[in-house]
Amino acid sequence: MRIGIDLGGTNIAAGLVDENMNILCKGSVPTLAERPFEDIVKDMGMLVLDLCKKMEVEPFGLTSVGIGAPGTPAKEKGEILFSNNLNWHNAPLVKELQKYVPVPVKLDNDANAAALGEVLAGAARGSDSCILVTLGTGVGGGIILDGKVYDGINHAGAEVGHTVLVSGGEPCSCGRRGCWESYASATALIRMGHAACAAHPDSHLAEVKKENGKLNGYLIFKASEEGCEAAKQVIDQYLFYVAEGITNLVNIFQPASVVIGGGICAQGERILGPIRSHVTGNVFCKQVSLPEIRCAELGNDAGIIGAAFL
User: Fold this and answer.
1) What is the three-class DSSP state of 303?
2) Are 82 and 89 in contact (CB under 8 A)?
3) What's 108's DSSP letter?
């Protein structure tokens, strides 16, 4: 038995996972990220012990505990060097957790863990190479090559969202301008939706914004489906940016699979069709087979399963 922990800025989710990659029991608690590091890790430890108690598993009998955490890990030291979401710097995560769960603990970035989960048990099952792109508040990436997580010699790689797509373009949270994240994240989609409402105040999209008091990705897609031309233009432009970034990744890595995660993947073929078409028409070499481009299947469970098998 293994336990995988998906540590997020909002929630800590964990699951007891068997050797067939089935989650037997899972639970979650709020992260409350503004708290001291030690308090957050204590809750992680208590969550692990609670899962063991529920399933009548002796904690000392666990094969391992794996953690997928936001930020840049120093795997050998078991530390998070930097996490913007949690405001951690050189946080000794493994050592602190082992105060509560004295078994082997493994650590990696949360997107890497999710990518591994999709390869082991999800949309990229059977692929020896996969790139997971998560489209959420930002744009995250996890890269699996030859069945193993690839994150560079310093474990700071795979930050696909912080490759520049538009030189000198929209400002990014990382301090640069024009990053893919600034054009392909859900945050960017919403920004584009607001701009469309300002440019087309009589559009159906503007009415939707007024009725709901805000916009989100779902509302923009829904307005497009209801025939709003302004919303359709936003979606088309947004998917162009998403597909441009994926085309870059395909040109660099030529993986067997590209998996798209995040809330936007609920749109299914509405996003996959245009993305596949764009990639097919714009990759450098059009004479080779292209990767399968799919939506993620495991949702939040990907991070738990991947972390368990780090």
Assistant:
1) helix
2) yes
3) E
Distance CA 256, CA 144 (A): 10
E strands in the chain: 2-7, 11-17, 23-30, 64-69, 72-74, 79-83, 88-91, 105-109, 130-135, 139-145, 148-149, 257-261, 292-295
**Model confidence pLDDT, tens digit, residues 140-198:** 899 999 989 998 998 888 999 999 999 999 999 889 999 999 999 999 999 999 999 99
pLDDT in tens, 70-111: 889 999 999 999 987 799 999 999 999 999 998 999 999 999
Plot region of 237 (φ>0 → left; ψ -120 to 50 → alpha; else → beta): alpha
Q: How many CB atoms lie within 10 A of CB 248?
A: 18
Rounded CA separation 6/114 (Å):
9
How far, CA to CA in Å, does 162 sit from each of 90, 124, 138? Answer: 22, 24, 10
Task: Write out the two tokens for 59.
Answer: 């904690």
pTM score, whole prediction = 0.87
